[in-house]
Structure formats: C-alpha cells, structure tokens
C-alpha cells in the first residue's frame, strides 16, 4: 500500500501478518478490548515503534522531535551515549541519500519481532508495504539495529517504563472507544474477520501520526500510531475529537488506498487534471495524482464521521480546515459520498466501493470544470496549523526573531532555537531579524514571528495591526482577556498585505516564556493562550476568531 504524508496529517499504512506474539507480549504496554462491533482492537505502546523513533531522533530527523515529557527526557539521557552507533549513522545516511523518514521507518518496525528484531516475514522479495526501503541492504541494517538494541539496553529501558506505557495506552483507548471510532468504521465498511487493529500512542513521534498494515497468510494487523494530545504533567495525553479524527483518517487509508488503486483507470484522467491545475499552488507530499485522490477520499469520509459524531456544523468546520490544506474540492466530494455510507457495510462491498469511486470521479470533474487555469487560492481562514501549509507556500516561509541588538539572553536563546529548527521544518526558510524595517521585508511571504513586543519590532507591529495586547499581567484578543504572568499567545491571521498568505504570531511579554513554545498543543483553532510554569506549558484558552 502506498505510503502517504500530507502536512500535519502524517500517515503510515503498514501490513502485519503473524506478529501477534511480538505486539501483544509484555506487561503494562497496553490493554486489549472489543469494540461494540466485536472486532478486536488492541491499544499498546509498541516497542518496535519506540526503537525506530529513537534511532531516527538520534540521527537528527526533525519529524521525530518528541514533546518534552519526562519520558522523552529519560530517552535522551539513556541513549545519548549511543549517538555514534553504526545503526544511527546508517539511519542518518539512509535519510540523506534515499529520503527514508516519516512513515517509512514505522513500516519497517511493524515487520520485526520485538524480542529478536528478526523479520516476521521474508523480506526478499521486498513486500509491497516496504517499497520505501528499495535499494537498502536490509540484512545489514537490521543487524546493526539488533546490535544497537542489545548494547543500549533497550529492553530493560522499556521495561522500566511499562507503567507509563500502560497509562498512555489506557487514556488513548478510552478516548477512541468513547468516540466510537472503530464502531463507525465497522458500520460503514463492515467487519473484516481476518483483521486485528493495533493502536499505538506515538510517544516519540511528536505531532505526527502514522498508519500501516502487515499481511500474513490470510491475516492482517492494521496499525495506527497516534500523536499525543493535551499532555498532563505526567506526560499522559487526554485526547479530544482531534485525535479521534486523526485515528479515523489513518484507519481509512488501509481501506481507501486499495480502492483508488483498483479503480485508477476510471480516476486517472480527472485526478491528473486537478493535480495539474493545482500543483503550482501546492506541495502534495503524496507526490502524484493517485496519492492526491487517496487523501481526498479519506478526508471526505473523515468529515462524514465527524458529521455522524458531532453534527453537520462541526463537519463543515472540518471541511474548511481541509480546504486550507489545499483540498479545495472537498465539499462536493463529501456531498457525493454521503450516500455511500448511509447503509451499513455498503462501502465495504464491491458494489459500494465502485459507486464511491464513481462519485469521487464525478465530484473532481465537476470541480475542475468550474475552475479555469488562472484560478487562485482563496484568502487564508485559519487555523494555526494551516498557517504555514503547502497551498500558501510557493516559497518557504519567513521566520522573524528578535535581533541581536535586543540584548537579552532569553531572546538570544529563542533566536538560536528558531534558526536551528526553521531549515528542518522548511528547506530554504529565511530567518530575519525583527528590526524596524521587518514589516517592509515580509510583504510577499507567509510569516512566523517570534518574540516579545519589547524585543521584536514586527511583534509590536502585528499586535497593533490585529488589535491584540500582550502585557506582563495579561493577554487580550478578540474581546477576551486572560490574566496572569508568564502567558504566551499563539495566533494565526491572514497576512494584512496579502490575504492569501498567513501570519503566525508567537508572542509573550517576556522572551524567556517563549523558549520551547513549540511544545504547546496547536490544534485546529485560530489562537491559543498558554501559561508557562517551569519547562511546561498549560493551555488556558483557545478558539476561533469570530466566535464567542
């Protein structure tokens, strides 16, 4: 199955066969439950995923930058002495030479036994699910991986954190079962008797989520690695509907991708036309028209899950967020696919799947017929995580930080952090000093501005432009006032000089409060206010502009 990544909705689809032994052994890693549909779902922290995340983090992969939990700090301390191990060096080399990152390491992880680190199925010839590993000497890499696991004491380290693993898995389990994620999938697509579902919290995958499937003889295990949302002081997440929608999205890829592949002959002409029309505006990380249509169908069905779970209004809001990510045609796709999910199990049938693909093709054709080649993207509407999204970025964003002349140690630390992170997030990103002339230099690009009003002149300009106040004892915006010290504001608005671009502001009265601000959960809202306490942040408010 094709591996896809698209902006903050980053996914993996791997295929697991006879690996029940390796994914379910080990006390404290998680809980097994039965959804209402009687399909088996297991929730656990997968040690294979953890090990591959550690290797990639040591190799400098920015997508594996974890949230700052006590567990992440323990990982950093325990494995720092092994940063020069050959497995780390080869992981870095594979990333630089072959682009192996994001979903691809997770796809390999689920093909391994968690105790012996031997493949659970033959890897020669290479399974379709591991197509991203073409050209790699896997026996050599796995030998180095096994040596790393043994020499670093990985098994003992994981055992020491079994209680934490169990607590995280239980929290994610409760959230997804309560929101009937699997029940909805099974009602719409039917229960597949030879499939087991594994949900693994991504303790070290940062804001990224992945999904995958490993096939055995007449058997599958489908995996979802989900990002941690709203961490408490113990590092345990408290997932909301955001995590539920991400999980639905990932789960659906293992059903939708084969449908698109099977019907590609009927979809190719329209998909290629839409892709050609929009590729100058976007950076589809799926990389081709087929991947674009897979993402389109999955996002439309996720909107229908949201409609069933939380109503039409919330589904429409979800669709707007996807349009901001470049899926401008999604409203019509949702309308056309609604009938395919009305009857239980219909979408999972041959007839229902064919009908869904016909409706997808018709919706895409209707949209492309209505949009000429000169069409331009609409003005930015939010939220935060779309501010620097691909449709807005015909070139890399501009990062603006406090200039060296600001003089404070905290401003210098913040400046150093942004300068280090920006190129990893966006190759070619430009970092500018927030001097008095900064506003004139950012007129033609999306902007991320970091700093206090005292240290960064652009921060002062943008706060005045948007009518926000960031002061020592309060933050005020949109008619709301949050009182207290050490508050930080993260907010996104349309660029005042070019509304098709976006401005993302990270501001606080003190630069010291902004160091590490990327750890604040920045979900599908236009603004977040958080309070810093030590090295942690507590969200005290968030919302959408224009809503009370």
Q: Tell me the radius of gyration.
A: 23 Å
Mean pLDDT comes to: 87
Number of helices: 18
What kind of oligomer do you see?
A: single chain
| Low-pLDDT windows of residues | 1-39
Number of strands: 17
Largest sheet: 7 strands, mixed
How much of the residues is beta strand, in percent? Answer: 15-25%
Give the helix proportion (percent range): 40-55%
Q: Would you give an account of this structure?
A:
This protein is α/β, with parallel strands linked by helices and 548 residues long. The N terminus is likely disordered. It has a seven-stranded mixed sheet, sandwiched between helices. A five-stranded mixed sheet has the order 3-4-5-7-6, sandwiched between helices. Helix 9 packs parallel to helix 10, helix 12 runs antiparallel to helix 13 and helix 14 runs antiparallel to helix 15. The chain is 41% helix and 17% strand. The chain has 18 helices and 17 strands. It folds into three domains: 247 residues, no CATH class; 108 residues, no CATH class; 160 residues, 2-Layer Sandwich (Chitobiase, domain 2). The longest helix is centred in the middle third of the chain and has 22 residues.
């Amino acid at each position: 199955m094709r591996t896809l990544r698209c902006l903050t909705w980053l996914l993996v689809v791997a295929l697991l066969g006879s690996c029940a032994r390796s994914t379910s052994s080990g006390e404290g890693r998680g809980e097994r439950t039965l959804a209402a549909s009687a399909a088996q779902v297991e929730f656990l922290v997968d040690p294979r995923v953890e090990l591959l995340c550690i290797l990639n983090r040591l190799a400098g992969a920015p997508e594996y930058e974890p949230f700052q939990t006590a567990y992440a700090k323990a990982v950093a301390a325990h494995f720092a002495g092994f940063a020069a191990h050959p497995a780390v060096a080869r992981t870095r080399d594979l990333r630089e030479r072959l682009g192996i990152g994001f979903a691809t390491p997770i796809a390999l992880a689920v093909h391994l036994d968690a105790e012996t680190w031997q493949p659970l199925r033959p890897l020669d010839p290479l399974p379709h699910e591991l197509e991203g590993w073409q050209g790699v000497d896997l026996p050599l890499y796995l030998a180095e991986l096994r040596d790393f696991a043994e020499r670093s004491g990985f098994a003992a380290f994981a055992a020491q954190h079994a209680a934490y693993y169990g607590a995280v898995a239980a929290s994610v389990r409760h959230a997804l079962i309560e929101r009937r994620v699997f029940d909805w999938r099974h009602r719409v697509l039917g229960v597949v008797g030879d499939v087991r579902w594994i949900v693994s919290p991504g303790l070290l995958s940062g804001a990224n989520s992945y999904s995958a499937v490993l096939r055995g003889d007449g058997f599958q295990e489908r995996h979802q690695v989900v990002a941690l949302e709203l961490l408490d002081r113990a590092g345990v997440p408290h997932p909301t509907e955001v995590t539920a929608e991400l999980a639905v999205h990932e789960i659906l890829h293992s059903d939708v991708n084969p449908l698109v592949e099977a019907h590609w002959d009927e979809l190719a002409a329209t998909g290629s036309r839409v892709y050609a029309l929009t590729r100058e505006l976007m950076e589809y990380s799926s990389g081709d028209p087929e991947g674009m249509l897979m993402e389109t169908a999955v996002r439309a069905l996720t909107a229908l899950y949201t409609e069933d779970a939380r109503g039409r209004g919330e589904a429409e809001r979800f669709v707007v967020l996807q349009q901001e990510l470049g899926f401008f045609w999604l409203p019509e796709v949702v309308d056309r696919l609604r009938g395919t999910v009305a009857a239980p199990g219909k979408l999972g049938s041959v007839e229902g799947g064919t009908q869904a693909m016909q409706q997808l093709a018709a919706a895409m054709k209707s949209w492309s017929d209505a949009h000429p080649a000169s069409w331009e993207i609409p003005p930015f509407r939010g939220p935060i995580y779309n501010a620097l999204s691909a449709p807005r970025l015909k070139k890399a964003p501009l990062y603006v930080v406090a200039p060296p002349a600001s003089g404070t140690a905290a401003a210098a630390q913040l400046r150093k952090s942004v300068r280090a992170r920006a190129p990893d997030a966006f190759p070619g990103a430009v970092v500018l000093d927030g001097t008095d002339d900064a506003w004139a230099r950012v007129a033609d690009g999306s902007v991320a501005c970091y700093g206090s009003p005292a240290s960064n002149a652009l921060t002062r300009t943008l706060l005045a432009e948007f009518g926000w106040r960031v002061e020592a004892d309060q933050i005020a915006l949109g008619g709301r006032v949050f009182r207290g010290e050490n508050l930080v504001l993260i907010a996104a608005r349309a660029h005042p000089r070019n509304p098709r671009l976006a401005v993302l502001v990270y501001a606080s009265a003190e630069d010291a409060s902004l160091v590490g601000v990327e750890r604040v959960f920045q979900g599908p809202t236009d603004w977040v206010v958080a309070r810093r306490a030590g090295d942690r942040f507590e969200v005290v408010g968030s919302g959408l502009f224009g809503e009370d």
